[in-house]
Structures are given as structure tokens and as C-alpha cells.
Design goal:
A: 98 residues; four-stranded antiparallel sheet; 4 strands; globular; B: 582 residues; alpha/beta; eight-stranded mixed sheet; eight-stranded parallel sheet; 22 helices; 47% helix
Chain lengths: 98, 582
């Protein structure tokens, strides 16, 4: 099972970019899984998906493409849960903003 | 290594470790620990992390309830940041491999990351640096615990870096422990600048953003001659500054040789060179430089940081201390209380004012608090029995105010007379000319006082309506502005016409750039920060009165402050090439 690995990409569409609140949700979600999680921006080193400071360094402004990768137990579930944040969490915020 | 440029306000060069004063005044007590203490430091770090995380969660709950969940979530992010594995690893590493104290390691790490974020130049994310500072503060608060005023109990000498220093902060500094000052805010005439001059400490102000680039304990060079601050200098720069430090000491020594020579021009026109002091101990700074007396003895220190007004004997002792140091035959001009109500925290009647600079201060305050005022007048009068004491009222803006002051002085004299307490019945009475209305009414005021002292700092501020400590408008504040020069000229002529002595006691009189001008305009008394005395004396001794008059005439014809200053700089350099004029 330790050989398990998953990968998906997402484009940031939120007008405020990948900012503090979804980042916090992302890190909290990532920490719930035993696998390693990394996030990579094209042309840059991957950062630790369980470190909010790491996510800071992505500088993911609107339009940035991010690749989320998990290695280890529950890698698939992890990537799925993390991808959901980009849709669900941002949407909630739009709702709240209204 | 990083180089910052600001405004030089007090000469000299200092090299030392930084003591960073944040708005909340948290100070890093020490930078390094011994190897055997590092384990303890890591433990302290983790305890602080745990507490700071708890704080963040508490904030999250409180803010969510108050403002909504999405705002509380910011603090959830803070909590995640505080226990971020990368961050914690980095801090631990600084402790274990570089023997940093937990505080220093936290500060270094947070500032490094904050700087990286700022450097991205993405306005969208720029607030994150502020988040990191917030976390730094929270961690330091837990690490350091409750700390008194960091300036109060300094253990070893340091270079003080701050956004700005308040007058009371500066007044309480122990010069033995302060190598230099450097502040983000402030201009040439800010309190920090004045106090640095008084304490003879190199200082640079108006540096702009500084604190976020430096951690307490970093090595810092302050070059008060050129207005440069260097953070974490490299070895070569350090060496160069050690040499400069020695050279500056030599230059000061050469000026010292002028001590016992009179302040007179080549053709024998004598100017009295006096010192401005704030604390009794500074009287020695005047005598040590051969001053002709004290032209301005500020008395505010007696009232600051007190739980009640100073009593008569306390004040009398402070005045006597200066008289004893100066001697009975040299003038000592004591200025009555020149504070705003906003500074007298111990008084119950303080008002919150929208615009304290134009509010209830100085004689305005004294005239409405007669017992406070009379106590000071009694102490000054009693001291007048023992030397050449002269009294001066600050901030006078109308003739009526002056008359009121003199009337109360008369009352106090009568009281003393009745009590049989000796004082000098002919003690000279003077007024500061620092409000444009008083400058314009100088002719009338001159008939009712023995002397004027032009307070250029406030006169410039009020004439140009520019706060000297506000870096955005500080450039308007300029002693060379023709409007200011015309007011000064008017005051000098009024004094000459009525036989009223005129002195200048603002920063301008100690600035070598204006020495020739002031002399040429007709001033024969200059009162300044004692450390400026030798240089001003050297300039006076290098010219003839005719030369000075010509320079003044020419300068008075110019239209802008810039032209005036450029012209004066040129003339001063021509006459005395080695003088440093900014």
C-alpha cells in the first residue's frame, strides 16, 4: 500500500488567489491523511502540503496552475479531499460574501 | 549586510548590537546561549508555541462569534503557522546549531520569511508579512513573559532601533548603555534628534522601513555623520568603520582645543555662545566646552513621569545644581514649563486634544493652573539670589499673555518679599519668540521684556504649518525658508530698536550651516546643544563681521529655502572647508 500515489492539477480561479483561509483548510485536511502531500507550481520546487508556510511560497495568484501530489497510504482519498477544497471552500466563501 | 539611509541628526559613529523597540516594547533579552542551554531553549520554544497556538484558537472563537466564521478562520491559519513543521524545524535549527536564544531564533526566522513575502511584491499577499509579525510578537510575548520598560533596565550597551522615541522614553535613557539611536520616523528637529544631540550619542532618523529588516541582537553600525545605518556589516565595512570611529574622535579633539578661546570674529566682534540643557548634569557639557552660560534650561524633565507636580524645593535644587556648575557670573536662562497637557499624565484635568501642538500647552497651561505656575516661579526666583538667573516664558502668542505672566511673577515676588526670602529683584525677564504672531508683534513685546529668545523649531513649524516629525511633510520644515528668515530679521530689528537682547535657541543656532547667516543678520547670542559649540565657534572665529553681513544680505535676497541653503553651504565651505555641513 505504501507505493500508492495520486496526482491532480487545478487552476486557481478565485479572484483573491489561493489565500489564507483556503490554505488553512488545505493544511488541516492534508494533516488528516498519513500520506505525504506536496503542492507544485510549474517550474518550481514542490512544497510540503502540510505546511502553510510552504503554501505561502507558492504565491498562487489567480490563473496559477497547481499540481497536488500524494504518496503513501490513502493517497487517492487525500488528493480527492484536497481537490474538493478548491471548489467547495471557495464556493462557500462566495456564498458568505453575498 | 544591508545599508539604510536617513537624516543625520547627531554626529559620531557607533558599532553595537541592536535593541529593537517594537510598538509593544518587547525586547529580546539575549541573543546567544551556551551549548548546554540549547536544550532548555528548545523546551522554552515548545512551551511558547503551545501557548501561542492556544491564543490563536481563543482568538478564532472570539472573532468567529463577533464577526463571523470567515474572519475567525484567519486565526485558524495563524495557529497552523505557529505549529508549521518547516517553521518549527527552522527555529530549532538556529537554536541547536547556532546557539541562538529561543527569542532570537524566533525573530530571525519570522523576519526572514516576512521579508521573502514582501520581496514578492504581490499586494495580494503583502498582508501575510503582517501575519508573521503578529505571530512573532505572540511567541516573543510568551517567551519573554512580562517585561518592564525595556529601556529601563538595560544590562549592556546597545544601539537602539525604534519607529520613533517618545520624549519620555528618551529622557529616561541611560547614556552609558546607549551607543546610538536610529529611528524610522522623525526629522532633523524631532525629540529623538534633540535628545541624541544632548546625550552626545550618534543618531540617524527618518530611515523609513527599518525594523522589519532587523532582529534584536543583530550587529548594527550607525553613522551619525553621514546618516547611514548598516545592518549586519561585512568584515571589510566593519574595519572601515572602526577606523572612521577613531578619526571622528580626533576631529572632536581638535575642536576641543578651542574651548578657552572666545567666540569672536577675526575682526573682534564678540558673540556669546550658550548651551541648551535639559538635565542638571548637562551643565558640565557646557562648561566643558567653554560656553558663556546656559541660554536655555528646559524644565520639563521635572514634570515628566511623575505621580504629582514637583514641589518647590525639588525644583530649587535642580536649578541650584546648574548654578553651582556654571558659576555665579554666567547667565542661566530658565524656561518655565513648556509642556502640553497631553504629557502631564499625572494630572487629573488632562483633556484629550485634537491638535495638541496648537492646544493647551506651555504658558497657556500655566496661566490656567496658577498653583503649578507659582510654585515654579518661586523656585526660580529663589535661585536668582545665587547667580545670573534669567526667566523666560515659552509659547507666548499675544502681548496679553506676556502681561499676565509678568503680573503673576509680580505677585510671587511680593509673596517672597513678605516672607523675607531673598531673590534678585532685577532678574531679567524674557520671552520665547516661537509663534508667528509674537514674531510679528516683536516691536510691542520688546518694550516689555529684557530679552527675546527665538525658538526656531516651533517658529518654523508654525510658520510653514509643517510637523517636523511627520516624514511626509518634513521637507517643508526648513530653517532656511525665506518666510522664517524674514520673521527672524524682524525680531532682531525690533530688539535692536528697543535695546532688547535677542538670542536664538532653536536647533538652527547649533547648525553650522546657519552660523554665518545668523551672525550677519545681527545676532550676538546663540544658544545651542553644547556639543555644537566648538564647531560654531570655529566658524565665527574664521570670518570677519563684514563678510558675515554680506552673506546674510545675499541670503535674504533669495526666494526659496533650497537656494538659501545651497548658498549658505557654498559660503560656509569657502570659509571653512573642513566643516561638515549637511
Amino acid at each position: 500500500m505504501t507505493g500508492e500515489s495520486a496526482k491532480q492539477s487545478v487552476v486557481i480561479t478565485n479572484p483573491q488567489g489561493f489565500h489564507m483561509r483556503p490554505m488553512a483548510a488545505f493544511v488541516e485536511a492534508a494533516k488528516r491523511f498519513p500520506c505525504n502531500v506536496t503542492v507544485m507550481r510549474a517550474g518550481m520546487h514542490p512544497v510540503d502540503g502540510k505546511s502553510i508556510l510552504g503554501l505561502f511560497e507558492l504565491v498562487a495568484v489567480p490563473g496559477t496552475e497547481l499540481i497536488i501530489e500524494a504518496n503513501g497510504p490513502q493517497a487517492f482519498e487525500a488528493v480527492e479531499a484536497l481537490m474538493a477544497i478548491f471548489t467547495q471552500d471557495f464556493e462557500e466563501e462566495h456564498e458568505a460574501a453575498k | 549586510m544591508e545599508i539604510k539611509r536617513g537624516i543625520p541628526v547627531s554626529p559620531g559613529v557607533a558599532i553595537g548590537t541592536a535593541l529593537v523597540l517594537e510598538t509593544e516594547g518587547i525586547r529580546i533579552p539575549r541573543q546567544f546561549v551556551t551549548k548546554s542551554q540549547t536544550k532548555n531553549e528548545v523546551d522554552r520554544l515548545h512551551a511558547a508555541l503551545t501557548q501561542a497556538v492556544a491564543d490563536a484558537h481563543a482568538n478564532q472563537e472570539a472573532i468567529s462569534e463577533k464577526l463571523g466564521k470567515q474572519y475567525g478562520a484567519i486565526f485558524a491559519a495563524h495557529a497552523l503557522l505557529i505549529e508549521d513543521p518547516e517553521l518549527v524545524r527552522e527555529i530549532e535549527q538556529l537554536i541547536t546549531t547556532k546557539n541562538h536564544s529561543a527569542e532570537y531564533a524566533v525573530s530571525r526566522t519570522m523576519r526572514r520569511h516576512a521579508k521573502t513575502l514582501e520581496a514578492l511584491n504581490q499586494p495580494m499577499f503583502s498582508t501575510r508579512a503582517a501575519d508573521l509579525f503578529d505571530i512573532e510578537k505572540s511567541l516573543l510575548k510568551h517567551l519573554v513573559g512580562h517585561q518592564g520598560d525595556p529601556l529601563q533596565n538595560m544590562q549592556e550597551p546597545a544601539v537602539i532601533l525604534a519607529h520613533d522615541l517618545t520624549p519620555s522614553e528618551t529622557a529616561n535613557l541611560d547614556p552609558k548603555f546607549v551607543y546610538a539611536f536610529a529611528t524610522e520616523a522623525g526629522g532633523k528637529a524631532s525629540h529623538t534628534a534633540i535628545m541624541a544631540g544632548v546625550l552626545e550619542i550618534p543618531a540617524v532618523v527618518g530611515l523609513g522601513r527599518l525594523l522589519m529588516d532587523v532582529s534584536g541582537g543583530d550587529e548594527v553600525i550607525v553613522d551619525g555623520n553621514r546618516g547611514v545605518v548598516i545592518l549586519n556589516p561585512d568584515e571589510e565595512t566593519r574595519e572601515r568603520y572602526l577606523v572612521l570611529q577613531r578619526q571622528f574622535g580626533n576631529f572632536a579633539k581638535r575642536l576641543d582645543e578651542l574651548r578657552d578661546l572666545p567666540g569672536e570674529t577675526k575682526d573682534g566682534t564678540r558673540a556669546a555662545l550658550l548651551g541648551n540643557i535639559e538635565f542638571p548634569q548637562e551643565a558640565q557639557h557646557c562648561t566643558g566646552r567653554g560656553a558663556d552660560g546656559v541660554g536655555l534650561y528646559r524644565t520639563e524633565f521635572l514634570y515628566l513621569n511623575k505621580t504629582e507636580d514637583p514641589n518647590e524645593s525639588e525644583q530649587y535644587e535642580a536649578y541650584m545644581a546648574v548654578l553651582r556648575a556654571i558659576g555665579p557670573n554666567k547667565q542661566v536662562v530658565i524656561r518655565t514649563l513648556d509642556l502640553g497637557a497631553d504629557k502631564l499624565f499625572h494630572r487629573p484635568d488632562i483633556l484629550a486634544e485634537k491638535n495638541p501642538a496648537m492646544g493647551m500647552r506651555s504658558v497657556r497651561l500655566c496661566l490656567r493652573n496658577l498653583s503649578l505656575f507659582k510654585t515654579q516661579l518661586r523656585a526660580i526666583l529663589r535661585a536668582s539670589h545665587h547667580g545670573d538667573v534669567r526667566i523666560m516664558f515659552p509659547m507666548v502668542s499675544t502681548l496679553m499673555e506676556l502681561r499676565q505672566c509678568k503680573m503673576i511673577l509680580g505677585d510671587v515676588k511680593e509673596e517672597l518679599e513678605e516672607e523675607g526670602i531673598p531673590f534678585n529683584r532685577k532678574m531679567p525677564v524674557g520671552t520665547m519668540i516661537e509663534v508667528p504672531s509674537a514674531a510679528l508683534m516683536a516691536e510691542e513685546i520688546a518694550k516689555e521684556v529684557n530679552f527675546f529668545s527665538i525658538g526656531t523649531n516651533d517658529l518654523i513649524q508654525y510658520t510653514l504649518a509643517a510637523d517636523r516629525t511627520n516624514e511626509h511633510v518634513a521637507s517643508l520644515y526648513n530653517a532656511g525658508d525665506p518666510a522664517v528668515l524674514r520673521l527672524i530679521d524682524h525680531v532682531i530689528r525690533a530688539g535692536q530698536k528697543h535695546g532688547t537682547e535677542v538670542c536664538v535657541c532653536g536647533e538652527m543656532s547649533g547648525d553650522p550651516l546657519y552660523t554665518i547667516l545668523l551672525l550677519g543678520m545681527g545676532l550676538r547670542q546663540l544658544s545651542m546643544t553644547p556639543q555644537n559649540l566648538p564647531e560654531v565657534k570655529k566658524i565665527i572665529r574664521s570670518i570677519t563681521i563684514e563678510e558675515a553681513k554680506q552673506v546674510a544680505q545675499e541670503a535674504m535676497r533669495l526666494d526659496t529655502a533650497r537656494d538659501v541653503n545651497n548658498y549658505l553651504r557654498e559660503q560656509t565651505r569657502r570659509i571653512l572647508p573642513e566643516v561638515v555641513v549637511n
